[in-house]
Amino acid sequence: MSDSSIVIYTSRRQLELYEGNRLIRRYPIAVGKKATPTPHGHYYIAAKHLHPGGVFGSRWMGLSLPTYGIHGTNSPSSIGQAISKGCIRMHNHDAEALYQHVVIGTPVTIQP
Question: CATH number, domain at 10?
Answer without folding.
Answer: 2.40.440.10
